Structure formats: structure tokens, C-alpha cells
Write the C-alpha cells for this entry.
Amino acid sequence: MLQTIKELLDVNPGLKAKEIAKSLGLDKHDINSFLHHNLEYFQKDTNFCWHLKNQELTITFDQNAWIDCSQFEQALANSESPLESSYKSIVFVIPTGCNLLLESIARLMALSNQLVLDGKEVTIDFRQLKTLTYVNRIGFFDHLNSAVRVLPERPETSGAQRYNRNSNSVVELGIIDPTNLDESLPARLKEVFVGHAGSKYEQTAFTVISELLGNVRDHSLSPIPGFVGLQFYKNFSPPHIQTVISDSGKGILGTLKPILETKYPDLAREIEEAKLDSDIYLLKKVLTQGQISQSEDEAHGLGLKRSSDAASKFNANISIRQERCEVKFFFRQGRRTPRFEFKIGMPLLRGTHICFDFELDRAS
């Protein structure tokens, strides 16, 4: 009945329940009840006439701006959580003058792939053609689900494959396989990182990158592959190297929270008594103290802690996005304790999405 009424209202919008019933040869009361039980598809106007409800949720990013993860999340918050929306079709619009930083590109790809997995139709409308060219260059379309519709059209060839390793400012988005990590990937990330930051940061780069990749190994458990990429932003103030590591799995909280009561009862009580939001408290604990792991090997619980220890010696920012919350740590050289920010109640985004931003001096 649903499809029949949808087809009728598509051709003849604004019919009353009795008119729909007459057209279909059905009882008016049955039609009226059915319409009211399917308000995600139908809406009634002030004259009691029925119409198809708009089945498309459009999320438009800011014009004439560089979109970082904060602006990306704000665009979601200003509309509706796409993964929880009743809309069957989701459209992301990249307007003229809109440029996406790597961290927002990573979240857009992860969210789009998750939406497709949930059975939604997804369209990305690149009205800023320069942005389409750039995301193709870094491998966006290599890992974007083929079911995602791309406007004006999906590139026929991959810029990432064509120009692979042809730039010392970018590491093309690469797949993270938790069971079989491509060892050339962290080596390439370190090579490009050190090329801009200097050899004195070689150990820092190795520690941060390897430990963050290890986080995917420990917490992913997803049918959607994780990915990693890097971009050097030379003309920003300050210049910075942005590394993103993203997966759409269970996430840090999703794997640790179920084991707290049995494996870490003292910590579970500590979290319960804390004034801070429980998810934020646990994330902060993982990053600053470590030694919390679902694995019997406690060394697995030190990855993010080692990353933060390495980052604390320099000017760097680390953000960690989970299903409904995010923490950000701002490390400054010579400052013992990083500045800490968090958000809760965010639109659903499964998995763990990490951005490591390393700031450089102009002279670097």
C-alpha cells in the first residue's frame, strides 16, 4: 500500500484521504489510519490534503571558507543527524568558494560510507570544482562507496593513483587493514612529516603515527575499512601538518565501556562518581594515563597515551571523535598540561576519527 499511495500522490499531490481511498478502491478509515502511521513519508496541509513528505535532507557547508572539523560538525548540527534522520536521501552540498580541510574530508567520507551501509541514498554536490579536483587527488573517490552519487560527475580516473607519491606535501588516503597493516604506509607518512618538520621530529612522528594506527587495530571491528592520510598546509598561519586516521568501527568507547565493570571496577566507580560526562572522562583517561585495554596485553592500552606524550613536547593538537562526543587536546611546548576541550550530544558518527595537527615555525 505504501508504494501505491506514494505513486498516486507523486502524480496527484494534495488529495484528501477519501479521494485516495476512492482512487484505490479502499476504505477511507483504513487509508486515514495508514497515512497517520506513516508520517515519515506523508504530510497533511491545513486543508487536510495529503502530500509526499520531502524525502531529501540537504546539508550545505559554508561558502567562501575553509571547512575544518568544527565547521563540518556545525553544519550537521544545524540540520539533522543524517544517520538518525527519517529522510531516505541525504545530499551534501559543497558550494562555490568552499574548501575542505583534510579532517573534514575524512569525516565526510566516513559519514557517507556509513549512510550507504544503512541503506540511505547519498549525493555529494561539488559546486566548487576545485574542491572536487583536490579530493580526487588525495584519493577520496578511491575509498568512497560506489553507490554515492557525485555531482556534477564522479571522476573517471583517480588522481591519487595517477600522481601517487608525486608530491612531498601529501600522503594519499590509504586503507588501514587491522589484520594486515601495509608497512609502507606509516613509513611514507613519517617520510613526508619529517620532510617538513625536520629530522629532530623523526621519533615523534614514528611514535604518534604508529600508535594512532595501532588504535584502529585495537578498536575497529568494522566492515568499512579504515583509512589514513596527510596534508601539509604551507600557506596557513601557522603552517601545519595534518594527519587523519579514521575508522567506522565500534570505536574506543564502544570497545572499552562494556569491559569496565569486570576488568576495571575501580575505574568504573571513579567514572560514575565524576562530575564530568562519563564518555569524556573515559576518553581523557585513555589519552592522558593509558593502561586501559580490552586486550589481555596491557601494552595495547598505551597507544594514545604514548601519542599524547610525544605530542606534549611540541605545538600540536589532537582531536578524537567518537559516536556522539569529541575531545580535543592542545599541546604547547614547555606547558606540562594540555588545554582540554570537549563536546557531547553530537550527531551520530560511528567509529573513531582522529586528527593530529602539528604546527610548524615559519622557518621550518
Summary: The radius of gyration is 24 Å. The chain has a mean pLDDT of 89.
